[in-house]
């Protein structure tokens, strides 16, 4: 059973979500609260996933709320009534495992909870669009070869096949992928598995022609979103 705690001002959503989970055989609500502080005081034991509203009535800062929970080792899924591109990116960088807008149905929310509970990520199309159009200075910079290996490997190729396509040895290709993962993690976008890499390619539209690159020193540098 995946246990869920929810922090939200919307009692209707809380009631609806709790009722919906009552029909799910593997997910159940254990605690609801209106602030993070109230949650921490009321929970008898930490739930597997915390569903956290982006903006709470107490005026608390969304990033601080996420960071506070993340520092306690909590898996946080942030939900918002409207898409906030910047805030969505900020809370994921602060440690949230996902960001979902409330225009999705309860089934989508439950699926996102399952993904987060399994140490995965849950991103709405709105957040993916935000990553793809992020212009912050700390976005990962991928070299031409890093991008080439990433796109080939994430498309389903083996590491050896991706290396052949890029004209490098498999050991070199692995180093490129390791650097790509490290760059995304440093940007607050946890990337460890092949599925994670495929998600980054899709979110950042890396399989398309680079939006911008610098060819100084003869090496093209691609600025990817995120």
Automatic annotation (TrEMBL):
Recorded coiled-coil stretches: none
SUPFAM superfamilies: C-terminal effector domain of the bipartite response regulators, CheY-like
Annotated positions of the 4-aspartylphosphate modification: 53
Organism lineage string: Bacteria, Bacillati, Actinomycetota, Actinomycetes, Pseudonocardiales
The name this protein goes by in its record: Response regulator transcription factor
Domain Response regulatory residue range list: 3-117
InterPro entries given in the database record: CheY-like_superfamily (IPR011006), Sig_transdc_resp-reg_C-effctor (IPR016032), Sig_transdc_resp-reg_receiver (IPR001789), WalR-like (IPR039420), WH-like_DNA-bd_sf (IPR036388)
Keywords on record: DNA-binding, Phosphoprotein, Transcription, Transcription regulation
């Amino acid at each position: 059973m995946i246990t869920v705690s929810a922090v939200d001002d919307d009692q209707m959503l809380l009631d609806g979500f709790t009722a919906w989970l009552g029909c799910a055989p593997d997910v159940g609500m254990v605690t609801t609260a209106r602030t993070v502080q109230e949650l921490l005081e009321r929970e008898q034991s930490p739930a597997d996933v915390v569903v956290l509203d982006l903006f709470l009535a107490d005026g608390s800062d969304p990033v601080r709320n996420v960071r506070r929970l993340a520092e306690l080792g909590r898996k946080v899924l942030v939900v918002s009534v409207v898409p906030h591109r910047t805030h969505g990116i900020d809370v994921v960088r602060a440690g949230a495992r996902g960001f979902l807008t409330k225009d999705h149905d309860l089934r989508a929310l439950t699926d996102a909870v399952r993904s987060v509970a399994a140490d995965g990520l849950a991103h709405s199309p709105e957040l993916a669009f935000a990553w793809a159009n992020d212009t912050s200075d700390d976005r990962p910079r991928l070299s031409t070869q890093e991008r080439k290996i990433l796109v080939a490997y994430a498309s389903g190729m083996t590491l050896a096949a991706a290396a052949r396509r890029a004209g490098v040895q498999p050991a070199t290709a692995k180093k490129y992928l390791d650097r790509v993962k490290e760059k995304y993690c440093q940007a607050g976008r946890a990337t460890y598995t092949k599925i994670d890499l495929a998600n980054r390619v899709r979110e950042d539209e890396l399989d398309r022609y680079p939006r911008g690159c610098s060819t100084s020193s003869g090496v093209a540098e691609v600025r990817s979103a995120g």
